[in-house]
Amino acid sequence: MSDEIIPHAQHADLWHSLRHLTRARIGLARTGTALKTHDVLDFQAAHAQARDAVHTPLDVAALQATVAPEECLVVHSQAPDRPTYLRRPDLGRRLDEGCAAQLTKGDWDVVFVAADGLSSFATQQNAVPLYKAMKDRLTGWRIAPLVIATQGRVALGDDIAVALGAKMVVMMIGERPGLSVADSLGVYLTYNPYTGCPDSARNCLSNIHPNGLSISGAATKLTWFLNEARTLKLTGVGLKDAAPEEGVLSDSSTPLLQKDHDI
Amino acid sequence: MGYGYTIGGEHYVFADLKTLLAKASPLRSGDQLAGLAASSDAQRIAARHALASLPLETFLNTALVPYEDDDVTRLIIDTHDKAAFAPLSSMTVGDFRNWLLSDAATTEALARVAPGITPEMAAAVSKIMRNQDLMSVARKITVITRFRNTIGLPGHLSTRLQPNHPTDDLKGIAASTLDGLLYGSGDAVIGINPATDSVANGFALLDMLDHARQHYNIPTQTCVLTHVTNTIEIMNKGGAVDLVFQSIAGTQKANEGFGVTLSVLQEAYDAALSLKRGTTGQNVMYFETGQGAALSAGAHHGIDQQTVETRAYAVARAYNPLLVNTVVGFIGPEYLYDGKQIVRAGLEDHFCAKLMGVPMGCDACYTNHAEADQDDMDNLMVLLAAAGITFLIGVPGADDIMLNYQSLSFHDLLALRNLMNLKPAPEFAAWLEQMGLYDTATERMLDVPAAQSQLRLMVG
């Protein structure tokens, strides 16, 4: 550690060289003890995008149009609106009874559900491309019509699968937005789902967005999971243990304090 | 046995003690989710009136979770200090509030009674206290802990430097650590939430933090907030463990949801003590708690979330922690819906823990689906500082890029110290001065460009 004074021009360079190590908001200047104006507004812009991702309704008609001419099924949970949805996750997990009555039981290997979750942006942008990529890969599978679900949590897929008579459900759902990523999609796979199915019986792929896991990368992983699940007749911890790589299952059975996601 | 009170000609009845506590609790979404909240404002105040006339001794005779079913209840009852409780033994909950706010309740008197106060007594009195009451009483309480510095002195505010990284990249973490140190953060602990919760990863992160601490001779402690069983294994392998971390909750079943038992905590506590790494003291434990944890694990036993939260402080108290913090806004809007609920809960958690003699800090924070923003955090941090909070958490620019939520920034903490005339831990302030970062005359951090600081090579 020498104490020579480094010319001013190099000051900015230390943070410039460190910023490629992390997306953290490091080296922000101060005025007095406060952040500079640009940094304050930059933060507020990111927060605004995250909040808009939570509160903007899913554009169901636009999603239907991207799947056309294929027909979609449209359902909603028992949570009537966003404020109730945010306060009552239990209602977001259950299918509205009127919607359930409109679903016809079939004989499907798998049903894909596109649900708004906590980021409609994620679902709007990523769910249909992933669904189409999966249809291309799952030759010979009996795939139910795409279900579009609003005010949905992960477990809503269980009620939908039961109503449609599907052996597996793939829930594609908007993840809780952060300041840096507001459009991240999570995918939860459940074999033999039923109402009240524990989260430990699911497998999860997360972080699907343009700067994270790509649609094709997610589709490849999900195809592996679907084929293995069909062979092993299970999902969850048992399937995670057989997975070729780490980190594809979220351990969501622990209390929420353990700083993880819940959607 | 029931409780009742009449307001405006209507008589409200409460079937049992936990119903009375739940109905008296300030409104929050978690109690609504659990179906425990008061159904009207008048019912809530009737419950507070009934609660105010309840003898404190009731809580020693009425377990909210049966003694034989729950080790937290057994811990509370078996370790209750009757001699310390004696001065309070004839008081009602309402008398207790009056006494706490009176000049008779001095710092020394509050310290003497702390071992006699059970979590449920603390929770009960908090429910009939306004926010200013929670601050006024907490401010009179001093809880000092030591490991490599002195935390909790009046007129001081410590901070946890939280340099998280989504892939636990060592240099990325070092860059955030440098950022925090240049803002005078990190005297409570430099503590990482690891993205990967494994022994090997925890070992490597601790090794990196310990090297940096030793190289620059920083009078603080480091921690990787991995599961307690991982930390035990890291200690067994000779890893650089200063503090043992664990998330805890207020019932045996909720703790089982975290994968911990009291005996595992005891084992970890004994192991960390045996390392004798502390220089100013041997407080070796660090716990996080938070309202909603028990309900989210389906382990709240029909108790309202604020009361069951206070039971976690009995668990913490048993292991003489250096640090405890509530993660108040983290657990989500289904437990604390908006800024008002988060602020109230933060003040409650701080007050109840301090009343029980626990060194309480706070992660003043919120998620993006809560009705809260940085203005709410500004309010909460000032109120907590007025209440004499032990420490607060800071992350670069208030944005935790690993856990995807917002806490306080290093700037915020610096602003708070200036606004409220609070100093870092004395050993840490002296070190900052040696590093040329702190002016002891003005008690202010200097604005030293990173490239000119003595820490500039920290990241390598």
From TrEMBL, chain A:
GO MF annotation list: ethanolamine ammonia-lyase activity
Subcellular location: Bacterial microcompartment
Keywords on record: Bacterial microcompartment, Cobalamin, Cobalt, Lyase
EC number: 4.3.1.7
Cofactor annotation remark: Binds between the large and small subunits.
Enzyme class of the recorded protein, top EC level: lyase
Pfam families: EutC
Keyword Heme: no
Catalytic activity: ethanolamine = acetaldehyde + NH4(+)
Main location: other
Subunit structure: The basic unit is a heterodimer which dimerizes to form tetramers. The heterotetramers trimerize; 6 large subunits form a core ring with 6 small subunits projecting outwards.
PANTHER family tied to this protein: ETHANOLAMINE AMMONIA-LYASE LIGHT CHAIN (PTHR39330), ETHANOLAMINE AMMONIA-LYASE SMALL SUBUNIT (PTHR39330:SF1)
Task performed by this protein: Catalyzes the deamination of various vicinal amino-alcohols to oxo compounds. Allows this organism to utilize ethanolamine as the sole source of nitrogen and carbon in the presence of external vitamin B12.
Listed HAMAP family: EutC (MF_00601)
Name this protein carries in UniProt: Ethanolamine ammonia-lyase small subunit
Automatic annotation (TrEMBL), chain B:
Top-rank taxon, per record: Bacteria
Cofactor note: Binds between the large and small subunits.
Entry's EC annotation: 4.3.1.7
Keyword presence, Lyase: yes
Compartments it resides in: Bacterial microcompartment
Catalytic activity: ethanolamine = acetaldehyde + NH4(+)
Listed cofactors: adenosylcob(III)alamin
InterPro entries membership: Aldolase_TIM, EutB, EutB_dom_2_sf, EutB_N_sf
Binding residues for substrate: R160, L161, Q162, N193, E288, D363
Binding site for adenosylcob(III)alamin: P194, Q246, S296, M402
Entry keyword set: Bacterial microcompartment, Cobalamin, Cobalt, Lyase
A Pfam cross-reference name: EutB
Pathway(s) the chain acts in: Amine and polyamine degradation; ethanolamine degradation
Enzyme class label: lyase
Subunit structure: The basic unit is a heterodimer which dimerizes to form tetramers. The heterotetramers trimerize; 6 large subunits form a core ring with 6 small subunits projecting outwards.
HAMAP family: EutB (MF_00861)
NCBIfam families, sorted: PRK15067.1 (NF011649)
Function: Catalyzes the deamination of various vicinal amino-alcohols to oxo compounds. Allows this organism to utilize ethanolamine as the sole source of nitrogen and carbon in the presence of vitamin B12.
Family per record: Belongs to the EutB family.
The protein's name: Ethanolamine ammonia-lyase large subunit
Species: Acetobacter thailandicus
